[in-house]
Specification:
globular; mainly beta; Tachylectin-2, Chain A; 5-stranded antiparallel sheet; about 375 residues; 25 strands
Length: about 375
């Protein structure tokens, strides 16, 4: 099925941002009318029942390694946004825990680690940093939701700071500097799009961000939103532009006014925490999205579902590669597909997820056409 053959059967909602602002404020004359269509395809209810997007035309099947093969480290810590840095190491951040063995001496809301090696023999090493570590618990403590390495500099998106904030390190997470501004509208749980080592293989000179369209990381939204910023201006708030839809030729439109943002992905009431990475072998963007619901009182770390969606461009069109509302183990409250752990042909990847409140890794094979 091509991107122009969607059947709008289960939901069709047209929103004009000229008449109805995202924040619920009154319309402002003179702004361009921007419309977005929220659609669910009938085919999405076939191979992947309940999925919000049609099935992938490229990835025909997803095969997970047996549950017994999952590797778990750093028990008692979660989150784990991760990036492949210039020194060939993976850098990550954890929340509400004490990291890898030997564990740090106190529970941190925000802690850091370096991960060396491959997906089967990796070694995690905690990194102590007075300027980066934060204390607190749950909503009261700052936590990382996105990590990226560009030009040898680590950038971090931090949630629970009202709403989120940018920090950066020029010495591989040993010291951090924090932006003097914050995203105060939406972007409650932002993440970066990761390409290859030190941002190698990037499509252009921009860095892309995604988030649930909510002020909080703890409240699911109806949609995901997107922003971009020149890779040499990530520290500057006025350099950010927000996705405003597609033009008649299917090219993205961008606006400097965050109030004019529109959806890049829609799943009513279920847009939560996520991570995006580029699969160079398959030439596809892969977006892992956790579902917010769980039948376990401890949350998705112990029971729940998630989806993996693919697209040829950072703005879509998104198709379902995998979707479940009840995985065979807890998917965690965050998951990603680290680019360092993807095979050259893109068909073998490894999911990093916070299931069982650990740094959990599971091999996944993508059977592509």
């Amino acid at each position: 099925m091509s991107s122009t053959q969607w059947f709008l059967v289960s939901l069709a909602l047209v929103v004009s941002l000229l008449d109805c602002r995202v924040e619920g404020s009154e319309a402002q004359p003179g702004r361009a009318a921007v419309k977005e269509v929220i659609a669910v395809s009938v085919e999405a209810q076939g191979r992947w029942p309940g999925a919000p997007q049609p099935p992938s035309e490229l990835i025909r099947a997803v095969e997970w390694s047996p549950a017994a093969t999952v590797i778990r480290r750093a028990d008692g810590s979660d989150n784990w946004p991760i990036t492949w840095a210039d020194d060939d190491q993976l850098y990550t951040a954890y929340g509400d825990g004490r990291g890898f063995e030997p564990k740090v001496n106190k529970k941190l809301s925000l802690g850091f680690a370096k991960v060396s090696g491959g997906p089967h023999d990796f070694i995690g090493t905690n990194i102590r940093t007075e300027t980066g570590e934060r204390l607190g618990d749950g909503r009261s403590g700052p936590k990382a939701s996105g990590m990226l390495c560009v030009g040898g500099v680590l950038y971090m998106l931090v949630r629970n700071t009202g709403n989120s904030q940018v920090a950066w390190s020029e010495d591989h997470a040993r010291t951090w500097r924090w932006a003097d501004w914050k995203f105060e509208t939406s972007f409650g749980a932002p993440t970066f799009l990761n390409f290859g080592r030190n941002y190698a293989g990037a499509r252009d000179d921009y860095v892309y961000l995604y988030s649930n369209d909510h002020d909080s990381a703890y409240e699911p939204g109806d949609r995901m939103v997107m922003a971009r910023v020149p890779k040499d201006r990530i520290r500057e708030r006025n350099a950010y532009e927000f996705f405003q839809g597609l033009d008649a030729q299917g090219q993205p439109l961008w606006t400097g006014d965050i109030r004019d943002r529109v959806a890049v992905f829609v799943h009513p009431g279920r847009c939560y925490r996520s991570a995006v990475s580029y699969n160079a072998g398959l030439k596809r963007y892969l977006w892992c999205q956790i579902l917010p619901e769980s039948t376990d009182s401890r949350g998705p770390r112990y029971q729940g579902g998630f989806g993996i969606y693919e697209a040829p461009d950072p703005w879509g069109p998104w198709r379902t590669a995998f979707y479940t509302e009840n995985w065979d183990m807890g998917p965690g409250e965050s998951s990603s597909l680290p680019t360092k752990w993807m095979s050259a042909d893109g068909r073998t990847c490894h999911l990093l997820f916070s299931g069982d409140d650990c740094f959990s890794v599971r091999k996944v094979t993508l059977h592509a056409r």
